[in-house]
Design brief:
Structural class: alpha/beta
Low-confidence stretches: 1-7
CATH class of the largest domain: Alpha Beta
CATH superfamily of the largest domain: Response regulator
Radius of gyration: 18 Å
Strand content: 15-25%
Shape: globular
Strand order of the largest sheet: 2-1-3-4-5
Distance between the termini: 28 Å
Oligomer: single chain
Largest sheet: 5 strands, parallel
Number of domains: 2
Length: about 230
């Protein structure tokens, strides 16, 4: 029987081989983990609702953005996240590159189920949630709070979802259509108006928590960018 502690651990599996991804998701879920699988980094970024996870199991050679690039972005905003790279290429320079980009563990395919479970369990045991530095902002998804140096600001579920999407997006930037789709808004002028109202509220809350104005910047003919890193708890 799985340790009941594993039920508090969320895992994302990003693997473009459909059968392998499904087998991996089923294996981890059988041990009591909360697991969601995606076939690309882009699919993860567009997921609605965005997954809450403590461990990312990443294939290196993905279509679109690579697993290495995602590992680097995740490590930049979440020092405590567990990152497990899995790849068919295990040369020394590739393994070193994986560790340099933020990986905790690097396994070469094919990986025996027992070894994969042992590696995930090792990461789960040492997960911790460090307090942000005084100058950092953090998003506490469990409590739906935006946490600054000396303030905690309540968020709605929609606001928390949007901030999480910004935090893990490349360059913390999202296109307008991505935000509208993520938040379930229509892709028309009315949806854009609703989005502006939401972003205006988020700007005020981010600034109140310590972010410099404008906090979320408009990118002409593209979308929006979160101007400051946001730690995920």
């Amino acid at each position: 029987m799985p340790d009941t502690a594993t039920h508090d651990i969320g895992i994302v599996v990003i693997e473009d081989h459909d059968d392998l991804r499904e087998l991996t998701v089923d294996l981890l879920a059988s041990q009591g983990y909360w697991v969601r699988g995606f076939d690309s980094v882009e699919a993860l970024s567009e997921a609605c609702p965005p997954p809450v996870f403590e461990i990312a199991l990443l294939d290196v050679g993905l279509p679109g953005e690579s697993g290495l690039a995602l590992a680097e972005r995740l490590r930049a905003v979440r020092t405590e996240v567990g990152i497990l790279m899995v790849t068919a290429h295990g040369q020394l320079d590739e393994r070193v590159a994986g560790y340099d980009r933020g990986a905790d563990l690097y396994l070469c395919k094919p990986v025996a189920p027992q070894e994969l479970l042992a590696a995930v369990a090792a990461l789960a045991r040492r997960l911790h949630h460090p307090e942000p530095a005084e100058t950092d902002l953090a998003l506490d998804l469990d409590r739906l709070l935006l946490v600054g140096a000396s303030v905690e600001i309540s968020l709605s579920l929609v606001e928390g979802t949007a901030l999480q999407a910004f935090a893990i997006a490349p360059r913390r930037s999202l296109e307008t259509w991505q935000l509208l789709e993520l938040l379930g808004k229509p892709l028309d002028v009315h949806g854009k108006a609703q989005l502006e109202v939401l972003l205006s509220r988020l700007r005020k809350k981010l600034i109140a928590a310590g972010a410099p104005a404008p906090a979320i910047k408009v990118q002409r003919q593209c979308g929006y960018r979160l101007c400051r890193p946001l730690w995920l708890r």
